[in-house]
Structure formats: C-alpha cells, structure tokens
Amino acid sequence: MKNNKRYYLARAGHMDQIAYAKRSVLTEGKEDGLKIVNIDNGSGLTCTLLEGRCLDIAKLSYKGINLGFLGKPGLQNPSLLSVTPGEFTRYFHGGMLYTCGLRNVGPNDTDESGEYPYHGRLGMTPTEEVNTLVNWDDNVIKVSGKVVLSSLFGYNLVLHRQIEIPLFGNEINITDKVENQGFSDETIMLLYHVNFGWPMLSNQTKLEINSKSVEPRDSIAQSGIKTWNTFENPIDNYQEQVFYHDPICEEDHFAHAYVINKQLGLHVDVSYDKEVLPQLIEWKSMASGDYALGIEPSTSRVSGRISEKDNNRVVKLKAGEERIFTLKLKITTI
Questions:
Q1: Rounded to an integer, what distance in angstroms lies between the CA atom of residue 220 and that of residue 210?
Q2: Angle subtended at Cα 166 by Cα 161 and Cα 170, rounded to the nearest 5 degrees
Q3: Residue 310 DSSP label
Q4: What is the DSSP letter of 120?
Q5: CB pairs under 8 A, 24+ apart, for 78-84?
Q6: Long-range contacts of range 61-64, CB-CB < 8 Å, 24 or more positions apart?
Q7: pLDDT tens digits for 83-142?
Q8: Are residues 173 and 328 in contact, defined by beta-carbon separation less than 8 angstroms?
Q9: Alpha carbons 229 and 329: distance in angstroms, whole number
Q10: Among candidates 188, 197, 217, which has minimal Cα distance to 317?
Q11: Phi and psi at residue 31, in whole multiples of 5°?
C-alpha cells in the first residue's frame, strides 16, 4: 500500500473505507456497557482494545486469521467483577493482552498493607482520558489513556498507556509509563499476559526463545520440560505447565519470543525491554476448552506479592518517580 494521503483521498469516499479506530460500547450479556475501540489498519491487522479495561487487547487478527485466546468467561463489564479469592478464573477472559499488576502478580495475597487479588486490579480497571487518532500524515494509528490505581491514605499509581499501530503495517507497539503520584515510596509489579489461541496455536506451532535457561515452576511443568517449545492438540483434563525463561537479548537490546505456525504461514515476534522486565514466563495450557499459550514478560515471577518481595523481585518506585515499559508485537508472513 502507498503511504500517500492524497492518493487515498482521491480513491475513497471516506477514509474509514481504508483504515479506522472507532470507539463504541458493547450491549450483550455480561459485556453490556463495556467500552471498546475497534481498529483496522488497512493491511489486514484488526484488533479490539478494551477502553473499559486498561486498553488491553481483547482480539487480534491478521489477514483474517485469529491470533489470540479468548477464554470461556468472555468479555465482561468491570462493574460485574469481584476480587474475592477464587473469582479470578470466572472473569479472566485472556484476550491477546491482559495486563497484570500493579500491586500484585500471581495468586491472591495479604500483607500488613492490605489484600491483593489474583494478578492485581489493573486489568479490570477502566481507562481515563482516552484519545484515538488516525494520523494520515505520520501513517500511524494512536490510542492513549491512563489508568489510576489509588487508595485513601495509601498508594496513588498511574499507568499512562500509548498504543501505536502503523497504517498498512504489521505491528503493535505499546509504551507504558508507570508513575508514583503519591508521597511515599511504593513497590510495583507488572506482567504482560500475551495469549495465543487457535488457529495460531495448534500442533503445528513452534515457540522459539534463545534462553540461557528454562526452569519449570513445579513438578507438573518438570514432566513437560523437554517439550516446552512444541504443542499438542487439545487434551482433556490437561494440567497447565509454567516455565521461567532467561532470554538473551538481540542486537536491538530487546528480548524476543517467536511464535511460529508454518501451516498458517505466520510468525509473531513478541519483544520487550528486558532491563525493566527481567522475567519471562511461558504458560502452556493444552487443556480442551482452555487451549492457550501465554508469553508473559514481567517484573517478577508469578508466586504472589509476598514471595516476590522476599526474593527481591519487585520494582521500587520512589515518590514522584516513573518507569517506562515497552512491549511490541510484530506479525510477518512466512
């Protein structure tokens, strides 16, 4: 496609005929009232962002092929969600991207400063100051907003998110700035739950990570340590396996995980700044009905706030300090 605004103005009655970013509201069942942003970048990359939930990516397709995993609970309005222990599996929809944090990553936890729900509150919190822009001069779609997590007499954390998708391109670039707007030092945790599903995930899929080491989380993962990078057809009653990777950065100084399906002719590169996201978790679920692969760059492992603090795997933000996190998804045909 040509990167020439006048070229398209001459050929399209309305520029939405070519590419768009449209905000709307869902009205069906549990998703009723959930605000979304639908995007088409003009070259076969389409996605749905959840304005009502942290600007996470619910769905992602490329040239008509679905890439992400949408779990059985489906999309839900955040007003229906509960942080009660045991409720997480009833509202976790997965999506192409589900952002976890900022106070907890992993199972429910409790310490002297309060209770922390499974994978935190970030992924269930609506976005404020949302702005969408299809910029034909710079050939990019931009969506931005902020998510505020705060407590009376407690923390005041703000995530500023910007998502950029090149017009006629094949990538999604996410830049998050986490700011401690409070007056006390805080510890934060942040995990990007990038979830692949059928048909991108199948027994034809391969995962490539240039890891210094691959460590199973538990005995269940240990049983699958030799096949962490290959995938089976769905298996009834399969128990999830979780692996910790230590990838070697490439020339761009980013760590990369490659999800490849030669049968579909698609190659997805998940890359991120390892300096601020030192942990990489692989979630392998071959379970029938819960068939997913998670690639999860993170500040910590997934053992919960207390354990991660004890192991010095949390990020310390001084009052007024901010930290930048970068995640990229690039899709190519092979």
A1: 23
A2: 105
A3: H
A4: -
A5: 78/34, 78/52, 78/53, 78/124, 78/125, 78/126, 79/33, 80/30, 81/124, 83/115, 83/117, 83/118, 83/121
A6: 62/170, 62/266, 62/331, 63/333
A7: 899 999 999 999 999 999 999 999 999 988 788 999 999 999 999 999 999 999 999 999
A8: yes
A9: 19
A10: 188
A11: -90, 0
Instruction: Specify the CATH number of the domain 5-333.
Output: 2.70.98.10
Q: How far is CA 107 from CA 78, 305, 325, in A?
A: 19, 8, 23
Model confidence band, residue 3 (pLDDT cutoffs 50, 70, 90): low
First-residue to last-residue Cα distance in the chain:
19
State how far the alpha carbon of 261 is from the alpha carbons of 10, 240, 326, in Å: 38, 21, 25
Is the pLDDT at 155 greater than 90? The verdict is yes
| pLDDT digits 0-9 by tens, 228-272 | 999 999 999 999 999 999 999 999 999 999 999 999 999 999 999
d(CA 61, CA 261): 14
Pairing state of beta strands 56-62 and 65-66?
Answer: antiparallel
- Establish how many alpha carbons lie within 13 A of residue 135's alpha carbon, considering only the half-sphere containing its beta carbon: 13
Query: Which CA distances in Å does 50 have to 45, 58, 156?
Result: 17, 6, 22
Domain residue ranges of the chain, discontinuous segments joined by +:
5-333
Name the residue among 72, 70, 118 with its Cα closest to residue 97.
Answer: 70
- Number of C-beta neighbours around residue 138 at 10 A: 12
Please state the length of the chain: 334
Alpha-helical segments (H) within the chain: 5-9, 88-91, 219-222, 305-310
**φ, ψ dihedrals at 154, nearest 5°:** -135, -145
Burial 94-111 (b: 16+ CB within 10 A, else e): bbbbbbbbbbbbbbbbee
Would you call 296 helix, strand, or coil by DSSP?
A: strand
Residue 243's CB is within 10 A of a number of other CB atoms, namely: 23
Contact 310, 287 (CB under 8 A): no
- The residue type found at 193 is H
Return the bridge partners of 101, or none: 190
Q: Which helix (H) or strand (E) holds 145?
A: strand 140-150
